[in-house]
Design brief:
Helix content is 29%, strand content 14%. By secondary structure, the protein is of the alpha/beta class. The protein has two domains: 142 residues, NAD(P)-binding Rossmann-like Domain (Rossmann fold, 3-Layer(aba) Sandwich), CATH 3.40.50.720; 181 residues, Rossmann fold, CATH 3.40.50.720. It has a seven-stranded parallel sheet, sandwiched between helices. Strands 2-1-3-4-5 form a five-stranded parallel sheet. The radius of gyration is 22 Å and the shape is elongated. The two termini are 24 Å apart.
């Protein structure tokens, strides 16, 4: 039974091994400064919220923890807001949350620039064969430097599968590189991206003409394994794939096959089909792929923005205001939300 205090839980994956948050503690002032709000870290960790978690808190600020329908079905459900730290929400059952009268928010602005610079970092590292040159230098193979010439970027084609918040930012910051920009996104009109110098193309053209192809789509039924064997087979032998949205967007087995056969020049991956990716994943043995543990965008700036965005949503809702970046506005019509937002 609620005591009248608006109670917020922060998932334990916000804590480092030393027990301190991965973000600047100053972000917590957004919660501490909200009248009538108390907060705590969830008493236990895990990949999924439990029914007990959802009965304990009015709002949960979640880093990477997901929620399934079974956690929302008990009669003592207290949860009314799930405020995500990041932009993605594929592990959060939107339909079940809406049916239960729970608002879901995400935080796209926090990752827009950090993710775009992550993709640019991969692009430059691949183009200049950074990892190869690092390796031969460490191994004393200095005389082999001419065997690892890179790829010039002027006039090359940068393609994006999807051109939303992050995709647009990537093209914006890549403009000085004097590359040709193309993208495929069925939900975007040419007029929406004309100012960025981007030409919208069909998906086959995107794969055939990109010298560097970046994934920038949300994970859903339509995009799961959209980068498959057939589409990878359309890429130039000199082309590179940058996988930086969600792992299952790419058919990992198909990617391994083209990389191991040298049918494309290389790839960079910050995300995997299964995370953490197993140590025996054969992709990790290849020398023409750069890998990172779904964290390349994590800088002090990004981490602060992630926390602030989630906490700002909880604070706004506690003050009876509509939280920003609401994913499921239909939940506002649920009886559990009646009279909540002024």
């Amino acid at each position: 039974m609620s005591d009248g205090t608006f109670k917020v839980g922060v998932t334990r994956d916000a804590l480092l091994e030393n027990g301190q948050p991965f973000f600047d503690k100053a972000a917590l002032r957004l919660l501490d400064g909200t009248p009538g709000l108390s907060w705590e870290y969830l008493p236990q960790g895990g990949k999924w919220l439990t029914a007990d978690d959802c009965a304990r808190y009015d709002a949960i600020c979640a880093v990477g923890v997901g929620v399934k329908a079974e956690a929302l079905g008990r009669a003592d459900l207290r949860l009314k807001l799930l405020a995500g730290f990041g932009a993605g929400y594929d592990t959060r059952d939107v339909a079940a949350l809406t049916a239960a009268g729970v608002l879901l928010t995400n935080n796209p602005d926090a990752v827009r620039r950090p993710m775009a610079t992550t993709q640019l970092c991969f692009l430059l590292a691949l183009a200049h064969k950074l990892m190869d040159k690092d390796r031969i230098t460490r191994q004393g193979r200095w005389t082999e430097q001419r065997s690892y010439y890179g790829t010039g970027l002027v006039g090359r084609t940068l393609g994006s599968l999807g051109i939303g918040n992050i995709g647009k930012e990537l093209f914006r910051i890549a403009k000085p590189l004097d590359m040709r920009f193309i993208a495929h996104d069925p939900f975007v009109k040419q007029a929406d991206v004309a100012d960025l110098g981007v030409t919208l193309v069909d998906i086959d053209t995107l794969f055939r003409e990109s010298d560097f192809l970046v994934t920038n789509v949300l994970l859903n039924d339509a995009t799961r394994r959209i980068v498959n064997a057939q589409r990878l087979g359309q890429m130039k032998p000199s082309a590179y794939l940058i996988s930086a949205s969600r792992g299952p967007v790419v058919d990992e087995k198909a990617l391994y096959d083209v990389l191991s056969a040298r049918r494309i020049a290389g790839a960079a991956m910050d995300v995997f089909e299964v995370e953490p990716t197993p140590a025996d994943n054969p992709i990790l043995k290849l020398d023409n792929v750069i890998v990172a543990p779904h964290s390349l965008c994590h800088t002090d700036e990004c981490n602060r923005l992630l926390a602030e965005g989630s906490f700002r949503a909880a604070s706004a809702y506690a003050a009876r205001n509509r939280p920003p970046n609401l994913i499921n506005p239909a939940a506002l019509a649920h009886a559990r939300q009646a009279g909540r937002i002024c």
